[in-house]
Amino acid sequence: MAASHPHAVDALLEGLGRELDRASPLPLYYQIKELLRERIERGELRPHERLPSENELERALGVSRMTARRALAELETEGYVYREQGRGTFVAEPKLRQSLLRLTSFTEDMRARGLRPGARVLDVRVMRDERVAARMGLEPEEAFVRVRRVRLADGQPLALETAYVRAALCPGLEAEDLTDRSLYQTLRERYKLQLGRAEQTLEAGAATEFEAQVLRIPVGQPVLLIERLTFLGDGRTPIEFVRSVYRGDRYKFVVELRR
Ligand code: 16G
Q1: Whole-model pTM?
Q2: 105 C-alpha to center of ligand 1: Å?
């Protein structure tokens, strides 16, 4: 991790000091946070570069410790910085930008970014779920293979994924070891199933205790809740329903809008 040259931190503090507007109705912590965020987004502060400490902000800007702490804490919650115990606060890697235009798998998405995809299996079982069946437009008795996995990029947990796959269309899937393996590839290669399209929803959420634990984030941290209903190549036959919880501090979804 490249700690920045001490002079770089001094120059940064000087810049912040000049731009801070004490007459503004915007709280000081918020101004400091925004000034740092802008520099991170403009690339003036590079990933893994050290930010000023609470103490340095306090002394150089003449603000209270609370103000300095809050500015850094909010940047951390929003995923712009990370902290290391006893070492300081550093600029985080940019969020993963995920397009919502194509039906891709987690494995494909991570490979496209040069990251190593992974999956840790938490639980696999054959079961019925009337609500899921109803969402898929199926009879309540429909059997599913429910696969719950933590998805990893370069070993770092990014999402908690619960997939309900129709058991009738992929017999024996429950016996497959999906650790570090692609579900879509298995559907394609072992079951000769072609995926056609999916309907997906996105909403905001806060990490529950369990989600926080497996994603290694604080309880209550913002997450993105995504549901995907995927159909086979005919566009009509539902194959999977997936509920995923993505780390809000690592993900950004991109859609192109046309007029
Ligand atoms: C993505 C899909 C999920 C699918 C999985 C397959 C979202 C929100 N979800 O995570 O529905 O089951 O990819 O990935 O994008 P795999 O083939 O790598 O196991």
Answers
A1: 0.84
A2: 4
Ligand 1: does its nearest atom lie under 6 Å from the Cβ of 98?
Answer: no
Measured CA to CA, the distance from residue 181 to residue 50 in angstroms comes to 36
- Verify whether ligand 1 is closer than 6 Å to residue 184 (CB atom): yes
> 105-159, pLDDT tens digit by residue?
999 999 988 899 999 999 999 999 999 999 999 999 999 999 999 999 999 999 9
Q: How big is the CA angle at 148 (ends 143 and 149), to the nearest 5 degrees? A: 150
Kindly give the distance from the C-alpha atom of residue 80 to the centroid of ligand 1, in angstroms, as a whole number: 25
Which residue CA neighbors atom 13 of ligand 1 most closely?
105
What are the start-end ranges of the E strands in the chain? Answer: 81-84, 88-91, 96-99, 117-128, 143-153, 156-166, 195-206, 222-232, 238-247, 251-254
182 Cβ inside 6 Å of ligand 1: yes
pLDDT band (50, 70, 90) for residue 101? confident
List, in order of start, the domains of the chain with CATH numbers.
Answer: 6-91 (1.10.10.10), 96-254 (3.40.1410.10)
Nearest CA to ligand 1 atom 8: 226
What 51-59 contacts at long range (C-beta under 8 Å, 24+ apart), as own/partner pairs, is: 51/9, 51/12, 51/75, 51/81, 51/88, 51/89, 51/90, 51/91, 52/9, 52/12, 52/13, 52/89, 53/88, 53/89, 56/9, 56/13, 57/13, 57/16, 57/32
Residue 228 CB–ligand 1 contact under 6 Å: yes
